[in-house]
Amino acid sequence: MMPTPQWARAHTNIALIKYWGKKDPKLMLPANDSLSLTLADFYTDTLVRFRGDCPGDSLTIDGQPVSAGALTKAVRVLDEVRRRAGLTLPAQVISRNHVPTAAGLASSASGLAALAAAAAQAAGLHLTEQELSRIARHGSGSATRSVAGGFVRWYAGTDDASSYALPVAAAPALLQDIRVLAVIFSDQPKAIGSTAGMAQTVATSSYFPAWTERAERDLAALLPALAAGDFPRVGAIAEGNALAMHALTWAARPPFTYFLPATLALVQGIQAWRAAAPVPVYATIDAGPNVKLLTLADHVAAVQEWLADHFPTARVVVTHAGPGIQYYPERKEPR
Ligand code: DP6
Prior knowledge:
alpha+beta, Ribosomal Protein S5, domain 2, EC 4.1.1.33, lipid biosynthesis, diphosphomevalonate decarboxylase activity, Mev_diP_decarb
């Protein structure tokens, strides 16, 4: 069939159980299962056109051609789609990020998930979220989970076919009420990207075997807490898992950390506040200095007030649970 250009939108996600380490970098198989929440306010729209009149694959983000590294990740996704569709045409990819740089959230998860969906649809493949997540995985691990909405589990698997993401059952009230406050201390690019940081950790951190065991245990405890809508339990497990991930980097050779002094001050401040007042608020941190606070809708105002008092210079963006992939025809650029 003739390829039909197509827009797809995917949202970024925040992991409650982190992916940190690959057991197979070529196939992009993670060392452990991970679990995330897809976020409503941060997303990428991507248009894919397969066309014979282009010399090779091209990708612009917000009108700018991307770096060689970013293009390589995109080409891995496009190659998977071409292989499945029996296509050889190059692709023109136009991508628009709606991830405010001020939010300090990576756009690679939403970007590569949107690319997988737009490319598959444009190639005439009508795939389930599960199949799309396998394709997105070839671009970036965290993109695997951005294909679905709400709480999403990435099954590590043992080969290409068994490493995919699926939505996870959660109490409806929890899905509706959970809030994420992104607290931004720095929007500078990090010194060690996640791909390199996790590779260094796998190769040298003496805690790595303990981490994969810990992550599987945290996930097993999180699933019933999500199903029961037990937010304090969900938050405590997520916070503990994030700190365990960051402990790995200190035990790597050479040792490193993504924390700034403000990162630690916020984690300690939140823990002390929680001990003193009955406010359910928990921290999680990705491969950078910024902190995402998890809380419930009723407590957002109190958390914002506390942040304004204790971290007056930090920028704060509030969001909630978001949906999976959405499609738009070529002529209807989404807004
Ligand atoms: C800390 O998905 O960016 O955000 O697979 O090498 O592209 P690659 O890495 P990436 O790593 C994400 C790491 C994390 C944790 C998580 O999202 O689970």
